[in-house]
């Protein structure tokens, strides 16, 4: 009413008018949102007119789609645009995850609701259910949207329209009356190319309201980790039913016709290939746990029998029984939740941990499934790239069979990583030199008889968007032989070859030049330097098989400070030191 700010001198406003006060009251009220979430929220608010509005947000795994969606729910509920929230998810485990996240923001969602209940309790703000539940009774869900409702579709690409696709038409029937529809996806396309309900298309491509891809998240920092892909080769042997002649082929030599039986033979738990890959992956996990004691690994299997067999192999390797998350287990969701908070090494799953499930301590993966679609591959990789904080130095490692198209998918991801890290280094170098003082799963091949598979061998390590050639590997082996004990005994020829490739791709530093004084704050410049140092430490750790903390310890002793307390000049010295060590490692 004028004068001092005091509750007795206040003017009562309705929620909508209150939110209109000031320049950006919503943004000021939620400082915890990431920059992309602020931008997406502003874009949503600029398009918030009209009943039944659809808004598609495409964001990389780990970017914070859930947080963004719940913020939109808060906004719409406070404005009285909606009084009810319905969240639809692909798996039962995600119901509990969404309910917990919503509770922390003051939104109460019933994750125990089943269709036979008929109605949601009056003390809930809404409900979270699966696509399957909606498909079984779409008219019930249409009735539950009688009052103004926001429907949030998590991973909307699971629903499709077309022959034999029940979810798409059911969703349209159920949620056509909804006041608002918010669509979330990390992969806004389907392997069968069928349209996704409520998504607008232009020239066959989904039209998004906001897009935040892996490259953008990596460039922003603090959101996703880089990832490398050890590609494992080996021979597979099989025989078709009714034939005496055996077929023997290397995974790296397979084509579209021979990949399915070769992959089936390689993934057979009674043969040699998959046990040797699991052993290699467990060694990588042991190295990761030297820096991060609770780091964990995930094996994605083709079916439940394979999952249990892989778990038995890992138990023999580690002496510790892995968690096994399969849909037939009634307590599978509780098991995943318990694993997320535990310090145990391995979890084996079929599809329950492939999408949406958040286990940030995952650092090593084994892609041991016959599914070869790009959408599924991206979803699995997404389980490993979520960062645990700005100081997280982990480089995720996902072991894959050396077959196409998996190699191509891995190269695409790594090209993005390389481009982003190159931009980061150029930005930091520029500051330093400017003079500044500061496919769907293939059908089972039951008509073939698996004869055997060899132990896995490294075909390549996809870590720079390309594969290591045979010549490069031979050169690395020769260097290892000449070096003798001067190089760590666990260093593999593939590791040396990869570092040689990296060194060969390093471009010369640009010559010093004059530039206008920068207005970038000291804290920002130091943070960028620290980020680049972390990446270089990860690169050196991979090259030398030394834990990150050992490398940091060497620099701390030589410079008499830590990366946390180091001044700008000392951070630059750390970068120079790391570059020298990387050159020596090559």
TrEMBL record:
PROSITE patterns: HELICASE_ATP_BIND_1. Residues 46-206 form the Helicase ATP-binding domain. InterPro entries: AAA+_ATPase (IPR003593), Helicase/UvrB_N (IPR006935), Helicase_ATP-bd (IPR014001), Helicase_Restrict-Modif_Enz (IPR050742), P-loop_NTPase (IPR027417). GO terms for cellular component: cytosol. It holds the Pfam family ResIII. GO terms for molecular function: ATP binding; DNA binding; hydrolase activity. Residues 512-524 have a biased composition (Polar residues). Gene3D superfamilies: P-loop containing nucleotide triphosphate hydrolases (3.40.50.300). It comes from the Bacteria. Residues 505-524 are annotated as: Disordered. PANTHER family: HELICASE ATP-BINDING DOMAIN-CONTAINING PROTEIN, TYPE I RESTRICTION ENZYME ECOKI R PROTEIN. This is Helicase ATP-binding domain-containing protein. It comes from Catellatospora citrea. The lineage of its organism: Bacteria, Bacillati, Actinomycetota, Actinomycetes, Micromonosporales.
């Amino acid at each position: 009413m004028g004068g001092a700010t005091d509750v007795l001198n206040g003017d009562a406003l309705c929620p909508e008018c209150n939110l209109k006060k000031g320049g950006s009251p919503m943004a000021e009220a939620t400082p915890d949102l990431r920059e992309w979430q602020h931008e997406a929220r502003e874009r949503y608010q600029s398009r918030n007119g009209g009943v039944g509005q659809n808004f598609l947000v495409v964001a990389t795994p780990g970017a914070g789609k859930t947080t963004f969606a719940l913020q939109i729910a808060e906004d719409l509920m406070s404005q009285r645009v909606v009084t009810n929230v319905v969240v639809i998810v692909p798996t039962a485990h995600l119901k509990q995850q969404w309910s917990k996240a919503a509770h922390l923001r003051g939104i109460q969602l019933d994750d125990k609701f089943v269709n036979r209940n008929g109605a949601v309790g009056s003390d809930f703000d809404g409900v979270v259910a699966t696509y399957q539940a909606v498909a079984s009774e779409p008219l019930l869900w249409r009735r539950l949207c009688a009052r103004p409702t926001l429907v949030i579709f998590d991973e909307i690409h699971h629903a499709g329209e077309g022959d034999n696709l029940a979810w798409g038409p059911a969703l349209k029937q159920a949620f056509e009356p909804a006041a608002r529809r918010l669509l979330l996806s990390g992969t806004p396309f389907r392997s069968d190319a069928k349209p996704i309900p409520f998504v607008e298309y232009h020239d066959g491509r989904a039209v998004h309201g906001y897009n935040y891809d892996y490259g953008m998240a990596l460039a922003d920092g603090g959101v996703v980790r880089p990832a490398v892909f050890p590609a494992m080769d080996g021979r597979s042997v099989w025989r078709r039913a009714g034939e005496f002649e055996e077929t023997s082929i290397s995974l790296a030599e397979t084509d579209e016709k021979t990949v399915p039986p070769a992959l089936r033979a390689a993934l057979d738990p009674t043969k040699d290939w998959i046990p040797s890959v699991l052993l290699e992956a467990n060694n990588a996990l042991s190295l990761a746990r030297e820096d991060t004691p609770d780091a964990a690994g995930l094996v994605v299997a083709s079916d439940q029998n394979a999952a249990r067999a892989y778990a038995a192999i890992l138990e023999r390797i580690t002496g510790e029984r892995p968690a096994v998350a399969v849909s037939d287990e009634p307590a599978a969701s509780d098991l995943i939740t318990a694993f997320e908070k535990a310090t145990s090494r391995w979890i084996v799953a079929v599809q329950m941990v492939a999408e949406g499930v958040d286990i940030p301590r995952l650092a090593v993966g084994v892609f041991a499934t016959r599914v070869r679609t790009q959408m599924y591959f991206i979803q699995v990789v997404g389980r490993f790239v979520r960062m645990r904080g700005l100081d997280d130095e982990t480089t995720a490692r996902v072991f894959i069979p050396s077959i196409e198209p998996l190699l191509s998918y891995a190269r695409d991801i790594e090209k993005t990583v390389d481009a982003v890290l190159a931009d980061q280094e150029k930005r930091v170098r520029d500051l330093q030199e400017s003079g500044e003082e500061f496919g769907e799963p293939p059908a089972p091949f039951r008509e073939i008889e698996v004869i055997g598979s060899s132990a896995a061998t490294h075909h390549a390590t996809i870590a720079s968007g390309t594969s290591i050639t045979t010549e490069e590997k031979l050169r690395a082996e020769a260097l290892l032989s000449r070096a003798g004990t001067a190089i760590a005994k666990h260093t593999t020829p593939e590791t040396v070859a990869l570092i040689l490739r990296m060194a060969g791709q390093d471009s010369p530093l640009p010559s010093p030049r004059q530039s206008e004084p920068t207005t970038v704050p000291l804290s920002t410049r130091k943070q960028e330097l620290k980020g680049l140092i972390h990446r270089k430490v990860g690169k050196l750790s991979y090259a030398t098989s030394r834990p990150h903390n050992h490398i940091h310890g060497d620099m701390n002793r030589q410079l008499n400070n830590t990366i946390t307390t180091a001044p700008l000049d000392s951070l630059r010295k750390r970068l120079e030191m790391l570059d020298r060590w990387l050159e020596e490692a090559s």
